[in-house]
Design a protein that fits this description.
Number of helices of chain A: 11
Largest interface: A-B, 22 and 28 residues
Strand content of chain B: 25-35%
Radius of gyration of chain B: 25 Å
Structural class of chain A: mainly alpha
Distance between the termini of chain B: 31 Å
Order of helices and strands of chain B: EEEHEEHEHHHEHEHEEHEHEEHEH
Strand order of the largest sheet of chain B: 6-7-8-3-9-10
Oligomer: heterodimer
CATH topology of the largest domain in chain B: Rossmann fold
Helix content of chain A: over 70%
Number of helices of chain B: 11
Order of helices and strands of chain A: HHHHHHHHHHH
Shape of chain A: globular
Number of strands of chain A: 0
Radius of gyration of chain A: 18 Å
Structural class of chain B: alpha/beta
């Protein structure tokens, strides 16, 4: 109960901080928007292998993948904020209060989810004139999936940040982690083009499953097994990552 | 209010095979009474901050024990946290929020309800002269204002004990004395204040009692006045018209009860070791007047805390 109250409190604070610098949200969407405008047309022939006959089809395949990439990539970078707060003493000030340790991390991760929800909303709205169409129940499920991905990737980032405690090392590590994870999930380039061994490797990437599930949702196939599979898988990833980083955090800040 | 026995903390430095263990704090015994401003004076690296962080539950001690406001540091951390406030050297305010928001948030992290938190924030802003800037982002504050916000944050839950790490480091003289007044006010409200400092004048002017720390342990403890007296006593220098008179004055004064020793200096002055300068000076003047000796100058030199530090460690605090 106390953890819940404290999480809400920490969440509110970070929401306030976010509202004070809305630029970071907008800048976070800048890259995906550029991808949307430049990559997708380039990829239309490639996406044909996945059944895209028109530009509209291409966007229906490309946008869901990009949303996953946004959740994954955006989440993996949140560790920087944590390191900055650790060194500024803001977290230390919280540590001498009886506030729940888990809440200090969970509240931040939930803020990251809100950031993503806003960013994903911007992308989806921008994609609509391009032919993207999604029904509300599917959209809500897609948001559940995105929220879980963000919880997972943000927690991983916090965990790594606590382990390395150096922004430079964190940056390199996150880059090296994000690139293969995104490539191996077929978010930027379709995996249909990949040689078989690469496709098999992608099967081991949980985020690749998330992309498949997301595409089914945007295709209107709510009942497709890939949907519940991806949600279950992402829930498991989020839970594992959150437990890991929360324990790490609680231990390192006591 | 604070009692420690054999408090220890060591850190590993270096990496791989070249590790070395550094005893940051090596067996610290301290007693701080309720309602006093207790200063921890020492050079950088003496273990001041580590001690403070241990007492504030931020660092786990390797050994020893401590009781803070009746709660055991090792077994009752939550209870300790309820009773203490801690203000780090670099503070800890976010740039993009206002002092009011920070205060409400801090109160709520202590488990205080929303309405109560808001009214406490208003009271704190008023008490620390911050109302005027209450709704401006912390980014825009001056060093002194920011430091006052830090302290207001540290006491928003009305702790019994307040830990302050280098409270006036980097502040201009005016902000410093303003901050000293705030700290004295907190003491007058019954709070026990434990602060670290490497400023001699701060230890001297602000603290009721100090411990001088060097190399992880205390080398001296007491009121600033007692510490200074303990090393050399005080010195009164008397100047007379010529050497002949000086010799006579020396004879007269050597017989005085308040004078420990008298020494003729080459420049014809007379150097007198006394216990308490304020009371010795009138006695000296009277004795000389009774003997018909005319006094040209009289000067009192009191040992500083730096003299104490020098006597105890062989180094000057200013140099270390």
């Amino acid at each position: 109960m106390k953890t819940l109250r404290d999480t809400w409190l920490v969440f509110q604070r970070h929401l306030l901080l976010m509202a004070r610098s809305p630029l970071s949200i907008v800048l976070g969407v800048a890259q995906p928007v550029v991808y949307l405008a430049l990559f997708a047309p380039l990829l239309k022939p490639a996406l044909a292998s996945m059944g895209a006959g028109s530009m509209t089809d291409a966007y229906r395949i490309y946008v869901p993948g990009m949303l996953v990439a946004l959740a994954l990539g955006g989440g993996l970078y949140v560790g920087f904020g944590l390191l900055a707060e650790l060194s500024s003493g803001v977290i230390e000030r919280a540590r001498v209060t009886p506030v729940s340790r888990v809440a200090l991390l969970l509240g931040r991760a939930l803020r990251d989810v809100v950031t993503l929800v806003i960013q994903a909303g911007i992308i989806i709205v921008l994609s609509m004139p391009l032919g993207l169409f999604v029904r509300i129940p599917d959209l809500l499920l897609a948001y559940v999936l995105l929220a879980l991905i963000t919880l997972g990737s943000a927690s991983i980032s916090y965990g790594i940040a606590l382990k390395v405690s150096d922004p430079t090392v964190l940056g390199q590590l996150v880059n090296n982690l994000a690139q293969p994870l995104m490539l191996l999930s077929g978010t930027l380039l379709p995996l249909a083009l990949a040689p078989l061994w690469l496709q098999r490797a992608a099967d081991w990437n949980p985020f690749s499953w998330a992309v498949v599930g997301m595409r089914e949702l945007f295709a209107g196939h709510t009942g497709d097994p890939a949907v519940w599979q991806s949600i279950t898988l992402m829930a498991a990833v989020a839970l594992l990552a959150l437990t890991w980083s929360a324990r790490l955090f609680a231990r390192s800040v006591r | 209010m604070i009692e420690t026995r054999g408090l220890r903390k060591s850190f590993q430095t270096g990496r791989r095979r070249k590790t070395a263990t550094v005893d940051a704090v090596a067996g610290l015994d301290l007693t701080v009474a309720k309602g006093e401003i207790f200063g921890f004076l020492g050079p950088n690296g003496a273990g001041k901050t580590t001690t403070l962080r241990m007492l504030a539950t931020l660092v786990r001690p390797d050994g020893g024990e401590a009781v803070i406001a009746g709660a055991d540091l090792r077994t009752q951390q939550a209870e300790v946290r309820r009773n203490i406030g801690y203000i780090a050297q670099d503070g800890g305010t976010a740039d993009d929020v206002t002092a009011r928001e920070e205060l409400v948030m801090q109160a709520r992290m202590h488990g205080i309800g929303k309405a109560e938190a808001q009214s406490r924030a208003v009271a704190a802003l008023d008490a620390f002269d911050l109302t005027e800037y209450a709704d401006r982002n912390c980014r825009t504050y001056s060093g002194g204002q920011r430091r006052r916000v830090d302290i207001a944050l540290g006491v928003i839950h009305r702790p019994k004990v307040l830990f302050l790490d280098e409270p006036t480091s980097g502040l201009d003289p005016q902000s410093r004395s303003h901050l000293w007044d705030e700290i004295r006010r907190l003491r007058s409200e019954g709070m026990t204040v434990f602060l670290t400092t490497h400023y001699l004048d701060e230890a001297d002017a602000l603290c009721d009692r100090i411990a001088i720390i060097d190399g992880g342990g205390t080398v001296a403890e007491g009121t600033p006045a007692a510490l200074k007296r303990s090393i050399a006593g005080e010195v009164v220098t008397v100047g007379v018209t010529d050497a002949e008179v000086a010799a006579k004055a020396s004879e007269v004064l050597a017989g005085q009860e308040c004078v420990r020793s008298a020494e003729l200096r080459e420049d014809g002055g007379l150097r007198l070791s006394v216990d308490v300068g304020e009371t010795a000076m009138p006695q000296i003047m009277r004795a000389l007047a009774d003997a018909g000796i005319e006094l040209a100058t009289i000067e009192l030199h009191r040992p500083t805390l730096d003299d104490v530090f020098l006597a105890k460690t062989g180094r000057s605090l200013r140099e270390s």
